[in-house]
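Both lines are quoted verbatim for reference:

——
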Amino acid sequence: MYGKAFAPEYQGALTTLSVNSSLNDVLVAGTEQLRAAERVGARAEAARSGLAVAEAHRRLGQVADADRAWKASYRTAREARDIGAMAWALWSGGTLARQRGAFPLAWRLLRLAAELGKESGDVVVRGYSLAGLAETGRIQGDYAAVTVLHEQLLAEARKRGEARHTVWALEGIAQIHRNTGANDTAYAMFEEAAEIAARAEDRRGHAWALRGLADIVSVRDRDPDRALALLSEAEVSCRAMNLSGALAYNHKMRGNVLYRAGRYERARDLYAQALAEFEAMSEPRGQALSRLGLVKSLARLGRDRAETAAELTELARVLEGIGLRHAREMVERARTELGLTPAEGADTEAAR
């Protein structure tokens, strides 16, 4: 039913690159082809080579380089009057904006990308842009607004037999089910995503699916050892492809698993490691979530209650500032779990 996964963001002379190519290799090949296209004035080819450069930088966590690259790709595509390439550049910029926690900008760029994708007749970039909008809403916790879009995109991907997009949609819907407490449904969808990704040789999608399975195994089945084994399997792919962001989220999830198992010292170390990784790539959402896990671990290890309460109050503001609509609920759950009251955090902040 599904063919081998491919990477439509690797375009022009770079279509021979695999979806599983090391990002360092993609960056080298993309830069070489970009320079070659620029030398002969092939603007359309330069724009599409620049897209691969932008995506490699983004996935490596090199935010400033990624920002310059997608904008250069867009300008070159506009000069070449290549509307499809303009759409792909905007998709890359919108995805980077979401990664950086700039959600309003992500919404704007991804909407423009979807519009240009429709105008150009490129159904793939339109689908990727709509998927980006759906993922942005899901990350912000606006499940009601994006669940239907996720399901529509899943149906379209299944119909076309696009393994990579099917895996993405399954994982997105599974995460919504996980976050709303339907763990059995979420597990089944993550499991299907993992199977499709494995058959299609989509190592990135497979790694994310394993992370989702590990989360549920840890919560539902209370089996930390199996969860850690799944994360270790996923980490192999993350390292092979230099997926900096996926690796950082893998480490944060490992912290979650260890925390739930009561292994607080090890959890503290993993949260601190993930925090440093997210800071290195300027990823504010990952930073905040890692900090939340770190605060909880330190509290379990005897940290002063007032300091814990104060940092949770600060984190609530940070998370809400990023645009995560369920942030206050996350922090309040942490307060309840640690036996703190809202007044403790407020009193400490007032004293400060």
Remarks:
- The chain has a mean pLDDT of 93.
- The chain has 17 helices and no strands.
- Residues 55 and 194 are 23 Å apart (CA to CA).
- The longest helix spans residues 103-120.
